[in-house]
Amino acid sequence: MDGKVALEEHFAIDDTIEDSKVFLPGDVWTELRARLMDIQERRLREMDATGIEVSILSLNAPAVQAIPDPARADEIARRANDYLADQIAKQPGRFRGFAALPLQDPERAAAEHRRCIDDLGFVGALVNGFSQIEVAESAVYYDDPSYNDFWAEVAACGMPFYLHPRNPLRSWGQIYDGHKWLLGPTWAFGQETAVHALRLIACGLFDRHPDLQIVLGHLGEGIPYSLWRIDNRNAWTKSPHPYPAKRQVAEYFRENFYLTTSGNFHTPTMMQAITEIGVDRVLYSTDWPFENMDHAAEWFDTAEIDEDTRRKIGRDNAWQLFKL
After folding, report:
1. Mean pLDDT in residue range 197-214
2. Quick check: 101 and 77 in contact, CB under 8 A?
3. CATH number of 81's domain
């Protein structure tokens, strides 16, 4: 299918490139580094070869979120966003941008979000999970009340917020001791991001901002498969979840979340996502450069779905959501 839009497509700058070194074996680092640092050459050739018209680009992980000093986090976020804006200006018909945000300081993050949307023309923000604040061994999630004004800013701008994975802190991840293969995209990314998303739902965020839209990658980080159980565990006890949110989790998930196919090129999983939240809330993505664009396209372009569904997921849903 030609004309696709992809929206979990990463790049790096000199200040953040080393953050990606841990995610793949050392013998492929040279290749991964070259992929991350390129925007205008190989990336465009790969897009042309796989039918991607527009890529929405975002900074690699964890990057800004792993910088405990709020001032330094703000500096790197602004540097990355300015670099990305310059790159988009060279190919405005092919690239759009997600803002990197220094959520170590909610006020600074709100200001940078506003700058990126209003001045740089970005189409939302992508944040790599929790932020470390002041000390390295800290993890702050965005259901914390200190982010109330930040979320009001995001909701007011009317653009989506992409919650992207990161690994848990080593000191918090004893469950993975002796099994490092479970870290990253194998398992830990999804588990960490799913819990963060459920925290956002439970805190009442979407009661306060019913139009706010969150994007999750990898076909929902496992949540669609568990929605019924989340809301209906031990149903005979008739005990609702004791959280501030006013409704069941599944209701918010179907009204306030979009899911992308990034790095999860499996038709039954995609169909499960469609069944749970509807075809209008599923979006095509590849997860370049950690996954191959051709692997994503070969799967998606031949998946056993009708052509109306393929066009919605591949292009139309993103075109509408991001006001392209």
Report:
1. 98
2. yes
3. 3.20.20.140
Q: How far apart are CA 295 and CA 249, in angstroms?
A: 33
Distances in Å between the Cα of 67 and the Cα atoms of 13, 63, 108, 137, 179 are 15, 7, 14, 11, 26
Give residue 189's domain range.
4-321
How many structural domains compose the chain? 1
Q: pLDDT, tens digit, for every residue of 25-39?
A: 888 999 999 999 999
Check residue 22 and give its pLDDT. Answer: 84
Average pLDDT, the chain: 97
State the angle between helix axes of 249-256 and 188-202 in degrees (0 to 180), rounded to the nearest 10: 100
Catalytic residue IDs = 287
pLDDT in tens, 261-307: 999 999 999 999 999 999 999 999 999 999 999 999 999 999 999 99
